[in-house]
Write a structure and sequence with these properties.
The chain is mostly helical and 456 residues long. Helix content is 81%, strand content 0%.
């Protein structure tokens, strides 16, 4: 991606490009991770409520195959929005507010168009996709119902992710946090009302999610409509700017494909787990919610370093880019070690939050014991891919991720599982692929950063 122009100036100081690096990273990181926590919290509450008050079949329906398909769609679009975030952050760092404005309106136009297509395809293809994943017949009805309701409201999910990524790209990670907090509280209240009071089961959980996402989408859109400078959103101005769209897609499509490949590999793993029965599916669904704590922290560091690098790249502060990457990697490594220790030491009590079934808890403990100690292997993948994305380098990092994390993991399931058909075999593929991919990223990043040697 070509360097952005710097012909527009503003008087206020940009702390991301000028402040103390570790302080600014933490100031930016904490609202993101807290916001992700709220997002994960209301998803977890969905799981807790259906697991505790509806049954393990409902838990498997919401958190099993259906959950993996939701992650596929939302993950792919979130990857696409990263293209808009990088473009906006680079223009913001270069203080080119005219291009920032074009980026905002193009991103909104794309999110609206994409959501309409996903809604139609999701409603139509859901039963077929669930059958392909070998979803047990007793879970099909609830899984189909959950997904179809969710896809009806996918517009709100896309709008919120787009608006939040734009605000964060400009250095504002606080307002997305506030909106997620509102969304979380509302979702929990609606879950309790629809499931416990109205006895609507899985449908109630899905409806609660859609309604709360609609509120968060409204809040973030209103914030942009009230913004000044390039962030100001005008509804009548929502349209595609071809040059900006090409730049956003150049970064967003590979990142979206990378995220989709993560989800596809997880879907294949979910399919393999489905063959072990409802208990294994429920255990994986419960573990997935705990596992999400690590991923939300890792993702928050990734978003932080992408924005941080993007703005400093736009401002041509290359030494600051390299220093920020080292600091951010150290922060994530420390946080990861702490999370791993908590998961390993308290695995049974943590799993009992989601279910009282002893067999399900036993299987979940095995999953945690194999995966949690090796989370730190993923640090180079998250931080270095985020940093490279910030300078517009996405093709090689995407290839590394797809080959190292996704294709190798799929190959592991196809080759190793028939040789040793156990849950532990499936789980062991994760640490292996994290280690290999992290090593590849370290080598590529070191080569890529040589071009900035001697530059300030």
């Amino acid at each position: 991606m070509s360097k952005v122009r710097k012909d527009i100036t503003i008087s206020s100081q940009n702390q991301i490009t000028e402040g103390v690096i570790w302080q600014q990273l933490l100031i930016f990181f904490f609202p993101i991770v807290l916001g992700t926590f709220f997002q994960q919290l209301y998803n977890t509450v969905d799981t807790v409520i259906v697991g505790r008050f509806v049954g393990k079949e409902a838990l498997a329906s919401v958190g099993g195959s259906a959950g993996q398909l939701v992650n596929l769609v939302v993950g792919f679009f979130t990857g696409l929005t990263s293209g808009a975030a990088v473009v906006v952050s680079q223009f913001w760092g270069a203080r080119d507010h005219a291009r920032v404005k074009e980026g905002v309106h193009t991103a909104y136009a794309f999110s609206i168009t994409a959501s309409l297509a996903i809604t139609a395809l999701g409603i139509l293809l859901t039963p077929m996709l669930l059958r392909w994943m070998h979803t047990p017949q007793e879970l099909m009805a609830d899984s189909v119902l959950y997904l179809r309701i969710y896809y009806v409201g996918i517009l709100f999910v896309f709008i919120f992710n787009t608006g939040s990524s734009i605000l964060r790209a400009a250095g504002d990670s606080r307002r997305p946090l506030y909106y997620l907090a509102v969304c979380c509280i509302l979702n929990i209240a609606l879950d309790i009302f629809f499931v416990l009071v109205c006895k609507m089961g899985v449908a109630g959980v899905s409806i609660a999610t859609v309604l709360s996402q609609a509120v968060s989408a409204f809040l973030v859109t209103r914030a942009l409509m009230r913004a000044r400078d390039g962030l100001h959103l005008q509804l009548r101005g929502i349209r595609f700017a071809k040059r900006i769209l090409r730049s956003q897609l150049y970064i967003g499509v590979p990142t979206g494909l990378q995220s989709a490949m993560y989800s596809i590999s997880n879907i294949i793993i979910q399919t393999a787990i489905n063959r072990f029965g409802t208990d294994s599916m429920a255990a994986w669904a419960a573990f997935w919610k705990l596992d999400a704590v690590f991923w939300m922290i890792s993702s928050a560091f990734g978003i932080s370093i992408t924005t941080f690098v993007g703005q400093n790249y736009g401002a041509s502060k290359y030494a600051r880019i390299k220093k920020s990457v080292y600091i951010c990697a150290g922060m994530q490594s420390a946080a990861t070690v702490l999370i791993s220790a908590v998961f390993v030491l308290f695995k049974a009590p943590l799993l009992s939050i989601f279910t009282v079934d002893r067999q399900v808890i036993e299987i979940g403990c095995l999953m945690i014991a194999i995966l949690a100690p090796f989370y730190v292997f993923f640090t180079p993948v998250e931080i270095l891919s985020g940093a490279l994305r910030g300078i517009g380098d996405v093709l090689i990092p995407t290839a590394i991720t797809i080959c190292g994390v996704c294709l190798l993991r799929i190959g592991w399931v196809l080759v190793a599982l028939p040789m040793r058909p156990e849950i532990s075999t499936i789980m062991a593929g994760y640490p292996v692929t994290w280690l290999l991919s992290g090593t590849a990223f370290l080598i590529y990043y070191a080569c890529r950063m040589r071009r900035f040697n001697g530059n300030n």
